[in-house]
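Team,

Forwarding the record for the chain on the shared tracking sheet. I've put the sequence and predicted structure together so nobody has to dig through attachments.
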Amino acid sequence: MSSAKSQKGSRVFHLPEHGPVDENGREILLSIKNLDITFGKGEGAVKAVKNASFDIYKGETFSLVGESGSGKTTIGRAVIRVNPCAAGEILYKGVRISGKIPRSLDREVIRNIQMVFQDPAASLNERATVDYIVSEGLYNFHLFENEADRVRKVEEMINEVGLLPEHLTRYPHEFSGGQRQRIGLARAMVMEPELVVADEPISALDVSIRAQVLNLLKKFQKEKNLTYLFIAHDLSIVRFISDRIGVIYKGNIVEIAEAEELFNFPLHPYTHSLISAIPIPDPQLEKNKVLYTYDPSIHDYSEDKPEFVCIGHDHWVYGNKKEIEEYKAVREKGEPLKSITIVDPSEAASRQSAQAAESEEIAAAESEFLKAPLHDTGSGWYKFAGFLLPIIGLLVGVIFRKHNYIRNYKALKKGAIAGLLTRLALILLFVLLLILAVI
């Protein structure tokens, strides 16, 4: 294996031609090991990613899925060296690219790893023409022989993403969302990267445009032997474009498996909940579907600490020893799990009526709450004032009640009653002492 390495001590200044190979003969392009990413300092620090580990093999599409705020984009931005790592490391072709690295290596990483951002409007420079936006990487790394070569590369790429050469003189605001995403895709692909981090590249697009952008991504992968880290929250799309899928929940990678393996055997309860949330095209079936909700309190990690373990079939799951044994037993049976439950129409109707009644109660309570005036706080100061001046407090309380200041009224009432009872007790005590003195 020939490599372009230049080392000074243990420092690597250039990337090798190929990455390390695993026991199955697959080339590991990107490796994330025990990654922690923290935002903030001291008591206000938030750990967005916790001990994340996974490999991405050359030529595959590895999808990272989870709900909003789970840490997907945080990992993607760490791969392109935007988010710093608090612990762990990121290896590209076996070379550490996280933390402080030589400038020459940094430039090679930028050249080889490109990102397609979620919001096509925010990720493009509104003051630059499409020609400059697509050419910027070419200028920075001087990836053209002369001006004619640069124009040729840009026009070819614009054609490949489905736009026209006359679009090059326009500005981003003159395009639709789907067209802007194509410009972002052209900007990344013109650099001829090996790894593309696609951060929810279709979530901001119309449904009709999504398939076109996905087809473009697959076309580029086939023609240019690209590797994708595809970040998404929609499992229905991820299933059909991914080779392997990683599921992340609140910064923890909870499950990794091949796409069909994961859908047939969603062992972790959170994966089960994500799959159950996939809409069914048939409206009647969707109406009768039972939505599985993940409850983290079902795990008892107080003594038996969880680990990320391979249970066979290249299937990794996060759990303690007891859970791992249960997952292994389920997987070894080899019977695909039923992730989506469709109930009887009659049972569904009763369930829906119960849910509707519950929703009405919640709505009524919210409505009652919203009716309350802004300063109806029921502060302790009202109780104190009612205690000191009980008669006046009761009179003011009546006025509050008339104007719907219920909390303030209750606070004054409690304070006034406590004040009157205290005064009554003092009077009784004084009378008792007086009787005892006369006797």
